[in-house]
Amino acid sequence: MKVANFYPGPSRVYSNITEYIYEAYMDGIMSVNHRSEDFMNLMELTKKELREKLQIPADYEIAFISSATENWEIIAQSLTQKASQHFYNGAFGEKWASYAGKLTSTINTHFGINEELPTGDIAKKADVLCVTQNETSNATQVSMKSLKMLREENVGKIIAVDVTSSLGGVKLDFTLADAWYASVQKCLGLPAGMGVMILSPFAVQTAEKIGERDHYNSLLNILENTRKNQTQYTPNVLGIYLLYKTQQATKGIDYIESKLEKRMEEYGSFVDSQDQINYLITNEKVRSRTVLALETSRMEELKSGAKEQSIILGNGYGPWKSSTFRVANFPAIKNKEVEKLMEFLRSFTGVSAR
């Protein structure tokens, strides 16, 4: 790949994807019947790899759906009885709240980009608490410590977590929430077109208690199929195959998280060494480990310079669109591409390499 792609999703795919696509074609995976034994074996193996590499508890269900966004609808219609409370500090958490509000009663709790999750402000009528763990629009994160506090203080409530930009890049404690969801085009290093949903036993019990079956993507329909290693819709079989092959090839989430942390340290050393590019998020405790949002007063010059070097940077988002740029810190991005970006940024700011 000649272009170094740091756009925060869709981003760079794993370099062995072309090899796996060829294998899928030669082995007939692309045309396999999704009710066949071959497909069910593939789905079973894929879920097994995800459990092992991402350390997902054995009693949690794993399901494949069309996208991360589809989870907004599933959670609202199949897991919410009275109301959902949405905690957000950026665009994607706000969009989740807005969509859920079309289907159920919602309570919205906005907090600042440099603030930690306000775990003490819980509405009594809310039976589902919705958290965007990694907010791609502004490069913030909710720590496992904050999620633990939310869990301990709200026994009996469903906790749903958006990990679209962190699943596969950050070690997550899945026992701290009940419905985790993501899509595959970010830390999982695949082409866009598929979502993943991870459900606790409590989430399953709640769905069974509510008994909602009015939609093709009702959670009970999804659960019945995933337990048979099938899907309720015609699935992205190639996407599942690619997920299986790429997860099979990884060294696991402990290794990946350590690798990404080292890159974050390198980025941090650079930011601290000059005054022309700065973090949007000043509170390191809530700074994302997989997406960086950086400010500069020389934005147009930076963008044109990066383009000349065949480097794709992410634009700022929402209120930070014109003042920031974003950099993906995803596992599929190669070390030599990070070195290329760092060389460009040092040249841009006049900082000498160490």
UniProtKB/TrEMBL annotation:
InterPro entries: Aminotrans_V_dom, Pser_aminoTfrase, PyrdxlP-dep_Trfase, PyrdxlP-dep_Trfase_major, PyrdxlP-dep_Trfase_small. Pathway: Amino-acid biosynthesis; L-serine biosynthesis; L-serine from 3-phospho-D-glycerate: step 2/3. Pfam families: Aminotran_5. GO terms for molecular function: transaminase activity. SUPFAM superfamilies: PLP-dependent transferases. Coiled coil: none annotated. It catalyses: O-phospho-L-serine + 2-oxoglutarate = 3-phosphooxypyruvate + L-glutamate; 4-(phosphooxy)-L-threonine + 2-oxoglutarate = (R)-3-hydroxy-2-oxo-4-phosphooxybutanoate + L-glutamate. It is an enzyme of class 2 (transferase). Its EC number is 2.6.1.52. Residues 10-300 form the Aminotransferase class V domain. Keywords: Amino-acid biosynthesis, Aminotransferase, Cytoplasm, Pyridoxal phosphate, Pyridoxine biosynthesis, Serine biosynthesis, Transferase. Its cofactor is pyridoxal 5'-phosphate. Gene3D superfamilies: Aspartate Aminotransferase, domain 1, Type I PLP-dependent aspartate aminotransferase-like (Major domain). Belongs to the class-V pyridoxal-phosphate-dependent aminotransferase family. SerC subfamily. PANTHER family: ALANINE--GLYOXYLATE AMINOTRANSFERASE, AMINOTRANSFERASE CLASS V. This is phosphoserine transaminase. The lineage of its organism: Bacteria, Pseudomonadati, Bacteroidota, Cytophagia, Cytophagales.
